[in-house]
Every structure is written in structure tokens, then in C-alpha cells.
Amino acid sequence: MTSTAQPPSSGAQAAHPEHLGHVIFIAAAAAMGGFLFGYDSAVINGAVEAIRDRYDIGSAALAQVIAIALIGCAIGAATAGRIADRIGRIRCMQISAVLFTVSAVGSALPFALWDLAFWRIVGGFAIGMASVIGPAYIAEVAPAAYRGRLGSFQQAAIVTGIAISQLVNWGILNAADGDQRGKVMGLEAWQVMLGVMVIPAVIYGLLSFAIPESPRFLISVGRRDRAREVLREVEGDTIDLDARVAEIETAMKREHKSVFKDLLGGTFFFKPIVWIGIGLSVFQQFVGINVAFYYSSTLWQSVGVDPTDSFLYSFTTSIINIIGTVIAMIFVDRIGRRPLALIGSVGMVVGLALEAWAFSFDLVDGKLPATQGWIALIAAHVFVLFFALSWGVVVWVFLGEMFPNRIRAAALGVAAAAQWIANWAITASFPSLADWNLSATYVIYTVFAALSIPFVLKFVKETKGKTLEEMG
């Protein structure tokens, strides 16, 4: 599945004000998939220690239960495009909503560790689908003049979902008197945390019935009249609808369906530009960002922070993530992708190095010394801020722009797969690495943040202000 990349025709003006509200509603409804992406990814943070305790498992087994969702993510992301091209974007969203709902119920009411892991995979598949369908649908429906701003709804929804999941977890933990295994509504607190996702999942499913199918898909299956109606809804009556439909048809016929073999070549199997995309994806994950979202409560509790406070810190970190994302959205087109990535890398090195230093001190009465504890907490927020205002957004912008037209779809797929694999590697390894040496673990993340600087300087070219056609 590819989104519309053709320039607007002379008649494809911005939506009139009376249509803009409707377009914003459509984009926001589609971005609910992004909200669930963020929510489901991060909600497990509140259940990690309770799962360890309930099933009496070690760090290695625990890590697999947490990380196994990423397998589902990779499969969902890899197959969503083909599913959407076959049955439509809206049906794909509805399948995703059902999977999110089923995963939430199953995760909240597991019989044993094995079926908890299975429901995590189901939720991961839904995440993978949402990560692909939301941005593509918004790009295909949004008027050209508003496409960039409406496209940013997806990333904003993801970071909002992460923050809301941490706020909900904190509220449920307080209701359970600070005990992750305490009773709330007849279940253990961690089960309620995982089950609450039913609410946004059902809302997402209901909203999918209130928004139109993509004009691009409608045209692809011969429903030109319905496509004209949708285009009128989102772009207004001032455009030449027949010309707009013809324009989309022509663009679809011109498109080259890139395949894996198009990426082959060069000295090391792939073309150099593909390796640069893979490198960006790997660096984005190897700085350890998802440790902050999957394990932060566990991390703070391991150095003596009270469980309720640790959940609060997870929430404040998520708020910082939102702030950083907004900063990136403001400046990515003003100062460029490359400078923003470099600024972020430097800030991440500082934050991660300070965390590594703070965690190197011995615990006193089960806690970090006061000074080191505060430095670790502040440094963690600094790290997340600089990641969010740079690599969190910039990598996806680069991946959407840097590849030549003839290989863009296939190259983006390989780079995204590399990102899920790198995410899995960090997520699966952190509990065991933390048991071995928490400070050394953060030194490793610091080294990757530092290495990202020469990587960007040497290999990554600025894409700001260039058309997609200029990429070759």
C-alpha cells in the first residue's frame, strides 16, 4: 500500500473552512490507531513487576513476555499494506480495533504465562497494523495544503497514548494502595491496567464507521462515484472532481511497485542508501529509548524509589516526550532534519552518561544516595526530551523522504523491519543486562548515542526543502 505522493493539480486547493473541521475529524479518528499504538506499547510498564511476582519468573523469561509483542508488531506492519489494498483502509482499521480489544481482554484475564504472551502478540499485530494504516490513510484523504499538519496527528497520538497509559496506571496503582497485585474491581491492579485498553479500542472501532474510505482505494476498486463524493467532502466543491479522479488514476498507473530485489546492489548486499536507512532505524532504538517506556517503573523501583512515585515519574517522562515531539514538529521544517538529529544526539549523550554515572553508586538502604537519585531522575527526563525533539520524529521523516522513488516503499519496509528488530533486541536484553550491571548498560546506550553523531555527519544527507523526485 502506498499513499498519494502526486502534487496537487491546479484545482486541488486547500479545503474550505466549512470542510476543514470535517477533515480534522477524519484525521483524528484515524489517528486513534496511533493512540492505541502508544497506549498498548507502554501500558505494560505498569505490570512488569507484578507479572514477575505472580508467575515467579526470572529476568530472561520476563523480558521475552514483554518483548514478544514486538514480533506481532513486525508481522502486522509487514502485512497491513497488502491487507488494506485488498479489503480497504477502513476494514483494516476495524480489524485492528477488534484485535486491540481482544488483546486487552485476554491480557487482563490470562490463564497462565503462555496465553498472556499470546495476547501480547495479538496486541502487537494490531500495533503493527495501526502503525502503517493510520499515516497512509491520512495522507490519502487529507487535502495537499494540510497533509503535513494532519499527518503529524499520528505521532502526536502515539505520544499522547503513551502518556495516558502511564497516568491510568498511576491512578489504578493508587486505587490499589500502591500494590501492583492489590485488588481493584475484583482483579489484581496490573490486570485492570492491561484491561482498560478496551475503552479506547472500542472508541477506535466505532469511529472507523464514521469516516469515509480512502478515495485512492475506492478508485482502485472501480468505485469512482463514491471517490468523487469523498473528495467533495474533504476538498470542497471548488475543485474539478473529474480531473482530480483522473489525476489519482494516472498517478496510480505510473507508480512503480518496488520489490525487495530492487534494493540489492553495492558492496554489502544492499544499496548504500538502504544501509543508511537501516542505520538510522537501529540507532534510534539502540540508545535505549524503549527502556524508558517499557521498564521505567521497574528501573526506578530497582534503585529504591517507592512504586507509586515510580509510576508518577513514568507519567512525567511521558509528558516530557509529548513536549519534545511538539518541539520537533515545530522545528523540523525550519532548521532541518540533520541539525535536529545532531542536537538530539548530543543531548542524549549527556543524559545517558549522567544516568550511567548515577547508577554506578552503591545503594544505601536499598536506595541511591539522594544526590545521585535526583541526577538520575533529571537525566532520564533530559534524555527523553532530546530523543523526542530529534530522533523520535526525524528518523521517520528521513525514511519517508530519503529513498529514490523507485525503491521507496520496499526500502521503507526494510528499514521499519530493522527498527522493530532493534526494538526487540533492546527490550529483550534490558532486564538481564540490568541484573548484570545497570550502570554499564547505560554506558552501552551512551556509546550508541555518541556513535550516531559521526554516522549522521558522514552518511546522512539533508532532505529539507527537496522534492521526493530530487531523491533520485
User: From the helix content, strand content and strand pairing, which structural class follows?
Assistant: mainly alpha
User: How would you write the strand order of the largest sheet?
Assistant: 1-2
Beta percentage is: under 5%
Dominant shape: globular
Write down the domain tally. 2
**Count of beta strands:** 3
Task: Output the number of helix runs.
Answer: 20
Please state the average pLDDT score: 85
Q: Assign the CATH class of the largest domain.
A: Mainly Alpha
The helix content is: over 70%
> Gyration radius, to the nearest Å?
22 Å
CATH homologous superfamily name of the largest domain? Answer: MFS general substrate transporter like domains
CATH topology of the largest domain: Growth Hormone, Chain: A
* Unreliable stretches: 1-15
The profile of the biggest β sheet is: 2 strands, antiparallel
Please give the CATH architecture of the largest domain. Answer: Up-down Bundle
What are the salient characteristics of this protein?
single chain; 472 residues; mainly alpha; Growth Hormone, Chain: A; two-stranded antiparallel sheet; 2% strand; globular; disordered N terminus
What does this protein structure show overall?
With 472 residues, the chain is mostly helical. It has two domains: 255 residues, Growth Hormone, Chain: A (Up-down Bundle), CATH 1.20.1250.20; 217 residues, Growth Hormone, Chain: A, CATH 1.20.1250. It is built from 20 helices and three strands. A two-stranded antiparallel sheet has the order 1-2. The longest helix has 52 residues. It starts with 16 loop residues before the first helix and ends in a 13-residue tail after the last helix. The N terminus is likely disordered.
